[in-house]
Amino acid sequence: MRMIRKYLLFNLAYALLFIMVLVSGYKQYSLLNYGLIPCITLALLVFFCLTTRLSGRFHQRLFTGLVFALTGSTLFLLRGYDPSYFSYGLIAFLVCHLFYIGAFYLDFRSAQELDKKGARIAIFSSAITFTAFYFYLRPHLGTLRLPVLACIFIVALLIMMAAFRNQRVNQLSFRLILAGVLFFIGADAILAHAYFINSFRASDLLISAVYMIAQYLIVMGGAERKLIRPLTAD
After folding, report:
1. DSSP code of residue 114
2. Phi/psi zone of residue 28: left (φ > 0), alpha (ψ -120 to 50 degrees), beta?
3. Alpha-carbon distance 187 to 172, whole Å?
4. What are the residue boundaries of the structural domains of the chain, listed by start?
5. Predicted TM-score (pTM) of this structure
6. How many whole angstroms separate alpha carbon 26 and alpha carbon 121?
7. Backbone angles phi, psi at 233, to 5 degrees
8. Is the dihedral of CA 178, 184, 189, 190 positive or negative?
9. DSSP for the chain?
10. What are the pLDDT tens digits along the chain (234 aa)?
């Protein structure tokens, strides 16, 4: 609640955008939806820039990841005009993931000796979960098995790096970003299922909702981040 009051104006504006995106998607107002979806990431970019002043490498990498997320979401919108834009959008989101991983790695590097038990749990659970998900998708992938495997590895690394921030940053930032990454992975999983296995009614709407929650939590976690053992210029 404190965080909501602290950024009250932005939270109200984001909630309004969130509702408008879902309503326009449900009502199938395509042109309105095309305009609103990029506004979600643009709002997060402006908020994050003004709040953090991009004062260190962590904030700069997170900001760059958001720029690629904006690129990816825009390309996804254009896939109806050219199916190849879907692939380009996926590549943009993978680059977004890599910049997020790079940001989280800075926090992990600040005290690599901490929470080794938590790190082992994160590695083991990620290995089991993402291996199972890959074999769930594998019969439907055809020639895309290797690229999808590489994508799943990157996503697994994202959740592990988010988990590795434990005890290195304040708990509010850690929990917000970890929750945001979990939602992000949820959006990725729904997208993969809809694209490779079976699309279902309102899948695009569900992906949009989960994605908007994910990016909001990650950005809030980045804005509230306090490194316990600061590194120079991080």
Report:
1. S
2. left
3. 23
4. 2-223
5. 0.93
6. 39
7. 60, 20
8. positive
9. -HHHHHTHHHHHHHHHHHHHHHHHHHTT-HHHHHHHHHHHHHHHHHHHHHHHTT-SHHHHHHHHHHHHHHHHHHHHHGGGT-THHHHHHHHHHHHHHHHHHHHHHHHHHTTTTS-HHHHHHHHHHHHHHHHHHHHHHGGGTGGGHHHHHHHHHHHHHHHHHHHTTTTTB-HHHHHHHHHHHHHHHHHHHHHHIIIII---TTHHHHHHHHHHHHHHHHHHHHHT--BSSPPTT-
10. 677 788 999 999 999 999 999 999 888 887 888 889 999 999 999 999 999 999 899 999 999 999 999 999 999 888 878 888 888 999 999 999 999 999 999 999 887 777 778 788 989 999 999 999 999 999 999 888 998 999 999 999 999 999 999 989 999 999 999 999 999 999 999 999 998 998 888 888 999 999 999 999 999 999 999 988 765 546
Structure tokens at 86: 């879907």
Tokens of 169: 């940053």
Residue keyed to tokens 């909501």: 4
Return the structure tokens found at 58.
């962590």
